[in-house]
Amino acid sequence: MPANSKYLTSSGWQRFGKISAGILGGYLVAQTAHLALAAYLDHVVILITATFSLFIVWAVLIILAFLAKNPWKIWGLYLAISIVFSVFVYLAPPLATLPS
């Protein structure tokens, strides 16, 4: 049975946008989310746990990028989320002042 033509109409740029948003943007969001958590919570535990949970979050974000209709909107969303998490990391108190 041949493939349905409505699923084969995406252009090369849209495919590239979804792949790059999923791989690069998803990794950026997952990494900054874990760094923001580590800045405010127990950083040793969060960074050790990140070795496993970062991959799971990244895989979910890749799937979400392919579910979006417009890859440039998902790129903008992933960049905006990453910037918010980066601001949280920047505004975090120094580790020396955190209780251990």
Q: Can you give a write-up of this model?
A:
With 100 residues, the protein is an all-alpha fold. The protein has one domain. The protein is built from three helices and no strands. Helix 1 (12-40) packs parallel to helix 3 (71-91). It is elongated, with a radius of gyration of 17 Å. The termini are far apart. The relative contact order is 0.17. The model has no long low-confidence stretch (mean pLDDT 87).
Features:
elongated; mainly alpha; single chain; 75% helix; 100 residues; 0% strand
Brief account:
The chain crosses the membrane at residues 21-40, 46-67, 74-92. By secondary structure, the protein is mainly α.
Portion in beta strands: under 5%
Could you tell me the radius of gyration in angstroms? Answer: 17 Å
Number of helices: 3
Distance between the termini: 62 Å
List the helices and strands and how they pair.
Elements (H helix, E strand, L loop, with lengths): L11 H29 L2 H25 L3 H21 L9
